[in-house]
Amino acid sequence: MANDRIPGPGKVPTTPERRRAQRVLRMVSELHKQGYQLLRAMPQVSGSGAYWRLIIGPRAWFLREHGARIAGVHYYEAPLYTSGAGNEYFGWKDAAEDNARQLALKFADRFPTIVAQSQGRDWEYVGWYLEMLGWAEAGHFPQVEFPGLETFDPPPAGVPVEGYIENSPLRRPPGGDADDR
Asked: Is the pTM of this model over 0.90?
């Protein structure tokens, strides 16, 4: 299917906010490469719709029914990146010039418990994550709008604006280990 292909770069205007969001997504991928494949991420839009966010935690915190949705009991304890913070990733004042690998080192140093809980192999999730990262690098950011609709921002041609990830080229990620919302 033509819709299964990731659009080429340059289709969506690049902005500092998009580049920073891509950097944080790549940071998670860097941690996966270092053996922390149980690390999960929940992309979402702020309640106001003005900012893109990424919530990060171990697989144990993410729902069995949806591997990109964190259980409510862990929502406020998980590290959060928001595009509203600019280049102060996770509130850090010393990371403005960092690349994804440098951010990964700081994340591991500053969130050692989360990183320790994320050590292990999860090839299925990492494969899904790499596909999602390809879409994000092309400028199309997946969103899990807690607790409902999932879309791309902006939607690539042929991808429904409304509907769940199952109705788009990017499928729902493998489930986590948490049962509750």
From this structure: no
